[in-house]
Amino acid sequence: MKNLNRIYLDNSATTKLNEEVLEEMLPFFSENYGNPSSLHTIGLVANAAIQKARDQIAGLIGAESDEIIFTSGGTESDNLALYGIAYANKKRGNHIITSSIEHPAIRQMCNFLDENGFEVTYIPVDQDGIINPAHIEEAIKEETILISIMTINNEIGTIQPIKEISHIAKDHNVYFHTDAVGAIGQMPIDVKKLDLDILSMDSHKIHGPKGIGAIYLKKNTRIQPQILGGNQEYNLRAGTENVPGIVGMGKAFEIAARDFDKNKDHMMNLRDRLIDGILKIEDVRLNGHPKLRAPNNVNVSFNFINGKSLVSSLNLAGIEVSTGCACTSKSAEASEVLRACGLSTEEANGAIRLTNSKYNTKEEINYVLEILPSIVNKLRQKSLI
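Above: the chain's sequence. Below: its structure in token form.
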């Protein structure tokens, strides 16, 4: 089989911009360039576009439009959620509960809070990366003000028991936040049914533009802004809004809702085809839960191989994958997520992540499975020299 055009399987890092999204955005770079805070016609057009995007995003997650606050992306959304809840409620308490496998945007903010008068408890996960809700309940104390657990892990794709954790939080009058950046478009999310207080979202993981994100903020949830200035975003996030980005994010969420079932089935079929084929190679293990995982996620460890070497070899063959979280891809350290799941340093260093999207095809997956065994064998032979 001849080599295809480059095969992109790093969709948990970022995704291709949908053509419909681009078409929706373009007028707001040119003729509809007004400041949405201005009261003249071109400003009112921009403001109306922002309100439409709020409706589109709220529609996908079961929220009210005025519960959507725009940010610059998933990292700011996570930061605002933790910082905002912590400082707005510090008179109530100073204790925060999170997990040992959160995204760096959560971990680093927790480190900051821990160094500035707050106490953070990190809940461990099992070998599949799943949190036991009972461990969270055991960690709650009088000073606990916030629980933050991601919906789907960005590296290993595990889906956490968010509904059970939310119920525990409510039983103890504790705010609950979830980082849903990796979950939007991958699984159904209804913020009302889940009874969430705050949820982080991003655009570029579901074929929208980069540089734009949002939080869902339940009404009457106390939060302190991080960025001060004008009264944009209900006085919770100052700064002139990124109108083209917001328009694109809204359209991406609308498309995700429209095509959800079709896309999910397609991604799951490709995922399972990859897993079945890769596990036929000797000395390979699947990381993350075999069933409770994102429809597009495959994370596997190859014994006797360095994951970065495998990524490089696959790249030379026209296949683009990663070793895990793009935000930490240049780190020489083994994945904290995989180590938290009990993998040895060698097993963690031998891992790669392949994440597909609606744009990938069965033919592409077949090509990957055709050439991967020979690449693995060559690298293993080199490691024995």
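Residues 208 and 274 are 26 Å apart (CA to CA).
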